[in-house]
Amino acid sequence: GHIVGEPKQEFSLDDAAKATLVQARAAAKKMGDVRLTVGGHADLVGPDTYNQALSELRAAAAAKFLQSGGLKPAAITAKGYGESKPVKATNEPEPANRRVEIRLETR
Questions:
Q1: Global confidence as pTM
Q2: 68-84, pLDDT tens digit by residue?
């Protein structure tokens, strides 16, 4: 799924992103006492500071959606990684690098 928007704005989640987050939320609820780390990422195009802000907004939008479905805010950590963890290292626009990853850990 994709998250659309620009830094300094609220992001909106597309249907594919929402479907993925619904699955992650269901898995977290099934696991019980769980901690979620939501990591936002950006591609290598543009200034580092812009991409850092973009990744933080991506992570925050996903975390907000997870919370809206009943997960406790204290169980969710949202973190932006900017350009630091690309899936594909290229200076061209790369959709695979513009992503959110969710890690679930039992406590």
A1: 0.86
A2: 999 999 999 999 999 99
